[in-house]
Amino acid sequence: IDKDTDLSSVTRARTHPLLTKFKRKGEDIYLWTTYNLDQIDINFANENVLLEIIDVILFYASKRARVIRLDAIGHIWKKLGTSCINLKETHYIIQLIRAILNEIFPDTLLLTQTNVPHKENVSYFGNGYNEVQLVYQFALSLLVLHTFYTGDASRLLEWASRLKNVSDKTAFFNVLATHDGLGVVPVKAILTDKEITDIADNIKERGGYISYKTAEDGVKKPYEMNITYYSAIADSKNTEELNIKKFIASQAIILSLLGIPGIYIHSLFGTENYLEG
Questions:
Q1: CA end-to-end span of the chain, whole Å?
Q2: 3-state DSSP assignment of residue 148
Q3: pLDDT for the residue 132
Q4: Of 191, 186, 233, 188, nearest to 208 (Cα)?
Q5: CB 254 within 8 A of CB 261
Q6: Is residue 141 a contact partner of residue 115, using CB atoms and an 8 Å limit?
Q7: CA angle in degrees (0–180, nearest 5) for 217-220-223
Q8: pLDDT tens figures, 40-69
Q9: Model-level pTM?
Q10: Measuring CA to CA, which of 28, 48, 65, 179 is 20 to 30 A from 150?
Q11: Neighbours of 30 (CB within 10 A)
C-alpha cells in the first residue's frame, strides 16, 4: 500500500501507524498492521490465502476441535474509504466457512472474537443458522465491574433483560476475562463516558494498565483495561475473605445468565496481578 494512502476512516484498535515499513527484495514496502508493528494482516481478498485459511480450519476440525475461535474477525476485509471493520464481505467469508463446516464437520462450532458494540457483535450470528454459533459477551466484563464499584446493578440488569437467542443453534459465550484486556468498546452504548472513566480509575488504583486507541477525531481513548479479574474486584481495604466472596459472586453472574459460561484459567485460580512477569 502506498504510504501516503488516506486511511483516516479506518477504525483503529491501537495508536501506532496503520502501515508499517518492511523490506522486500531490498526495497521499502508498507504493509497493513492492525494490531502490532510485527503482526502483518492477512489478505483475504487473495483467493489462495482464503483457501489456505479454510484448509487450516478443516485441519483443526479433522482433529476434533470442538470450537474454533475466529480472532479479530471483524478486521479481515479491507476496503479503502471505509471503516474496514464489520464489512459485508467479512460476513460472506464467515458464511462460506460455516457452509463448508456444515457439510464436513457439522459438530464444530465457530466463535467470533469481535471487540465491538453489542449490536454489531450479535450481527455475527447472521440469520441464526448461516454464520457463527457463538459470540463472546465482552460487555459483561465492565458491566459487572461497574456493578461492584457502584453497588448498583441496574445497568447490568437492564442490559441482561434484553438478551435473546437468535435461534436454537446459537448461544452467547459469557466471559469476564480472557488473555486480552477488558474491552471498552462493547459497553460504549451501555455506559456513559464518565462511568467508563470511573472504572478505568478503579483499575489503575488496583495496579492495572489502560491500553489506548486513536479515535477518528485523532484523540487517544481507552480501548482495553489490563488487569486480572480478581485484582479488579478485590479492594485492599477489605479482608481477603470478603474479596474472595466478592470475586466468587462476580463469577456466579456469568453462570446464571443466558448462554454458555466461560471461566478464564486465571479466574479459576484467582490469580492476582503479576507485573514483574
A1: 37
A2: helix
A3: 99
A4: 233
A5: yes
A6: no
A7: 110
A8: 999 999 999 999 999 999 999 999 999 999
A9: 0.90
A10: 179
A11: 16
48 exposure class (CB count in 10 Å sphere: 0-12, 13-18, 19+): exposed
- Identify the burial level of 186 via C-beta atoms within 10 angstroms of its C-beta, where 0-12 means exposed, 13-18 middle and 19 or more buried: buried
Pair 90, 15: CB distance under 8 Å: no
How many Å apart are CA 216 and CA 221, to the nearest integer?
Answer: 10
Q: Which CATH class is domain 126-277?
A: alpha beta
DSSP label at 48? Answer: H
What are the cell numbers at 179? 488473555
Examine the residue annotation and report whether 71 is marked as an active-site residue of this protein: yes
Q: Which of 2, 4, 71, 180 is catalytic?
A: 71
pLDDT reported for residue 118: 87
The three-state secondary structure class of 230 is helix
pLDDT of 261: 97
- Per-domain residue ranges of the chain: 126-277
Q: Report the distance separating Cα 180 and Cα 215, nearest Å.
A: 20
As a whole number of angstroms, the distance between CA 18 and CA 176 comes to: 29
User: 130 and 167 in contact (C-beta within 8 Å)?
Assistant: no
